[in-house]
Amino acid sequence: MSENVARRGFLVGGLGGAALLAAGCTSNEPAAAPSSAAAAPAPAASGNDQPGTKVTIGFSAPAADHGWIAAIAKNAEATAKQYSDIDFKPVEPTNDINQQISAVESLIAQKVNALVILPNDGQQLNQVALQATEAGIPVINLDRVFPDKLAYRTWIGGDNYGMGVAAGHFIGKQLKDKGVSNPVIVEIQGIATLPLTQDRSKGFADALKTYGFSVTAKQDAKFTVETGNQVATSLLQAHKKIDAMWNHDDDQGVGVLAAIKEAGRDEFVMVGGAGSLNAMKEIQSGTSVLKATVTYSPTMASSAIRLARLVAQGKGMSDLVENSVPQSITLASETITKDNVEKYLELGFES
């Protein structure tokens, strides 16, 4: 694999516009600049941030072999450290389903006060999440959803359908403005079997339909740089002319862009997904096929830790009237273009 395909170091910025604007347990103050250390949002100025009952929060997520996942883990840890009343108990991150189940079972056995779980696969970890709930431990389900609502107290994640809609509208408008008819539109998914990927694809198809367009070809790239490179190479070879490309994930997009540059192709417009720093820099350059990316902010992990703390302490969200934390929180997906990229740069994570 060439150097421009190799994975780079990780960093994470502060809480961006896609984060939880309504919640009193979050802040919108950006970090001063990107750095290799996690720059989790500063605690909001509310009564909820005063030290309360000491709570132990368990945390489990996949292995940090992906920029977005690395940012999730760093944000969770950094946010937990901001509170003197949180005892943070992360378990070894893993991509092995059975190992993650065992790790969560160990946290249940320790009788933690709350669990924050980003499952490798919500379906396969549903049973262990139910075990936690049945043991009286509230589960904050992060991102990849458990199919059984009894398995979690609160879900927080990005708007996957909204990501697809945003990408579809950006591409649809670009092609309409150019007067393109019957365009060749290719889509590079993450992991095709995940509900989040299916939601992204459905949103994309639904938005394109409003312009009279549809996806010509799609293939999944497993959220990895290497597979992104392979899939993009295959699609470029199969389609001698492409009008638009949507790549679901900016991490795998490192490999996608490398394949595009290697092939010397620049006849199409490309949209990314998640909002990585390197994607933003490509957009800012004005010389790349990558013209936009739609956000899916890893700052959701910061909010998940704060929600777990509130639930464990029996508190609600200070900006809401209700006395308890909502059952489901969906973050907004925003479109980053050359026109607004400046305000997002310091919020990006490195792929």
TrEMBL record:
Pfam families: Peripla_BP_4 (PF13407). Residues 32-53 are annotated as: Disordered. It is found in: Cell envelope. Belongs to the bacterial solute-binding protein 2 family. PANTHER family: D-ALLOSE-BINDING PERIPLASMIC PROTEIN-RELATED. InterPro entries: Peripla_BP_I, SBP_2_dom, TAT_signal. SUPFAM superfamilies: Periplasmic binding protein-like I (SSF53822). CDD domains: PBP1_ABC_sugar_binding-like. Its main location: other. Keywords: Signal. This is ABC transporter periplasmic-binding protein YtfQ. The lineage of its organism: Bacteria, Bacillati, Actinomycetota, Actinomycetes, Streptosporangiales. Residues 57-315 form the Periplasmic binding protein domain. Residues 32-46 have a biased composition (Low complexity). Gene3D superfamilies: 3.40.50.2300.
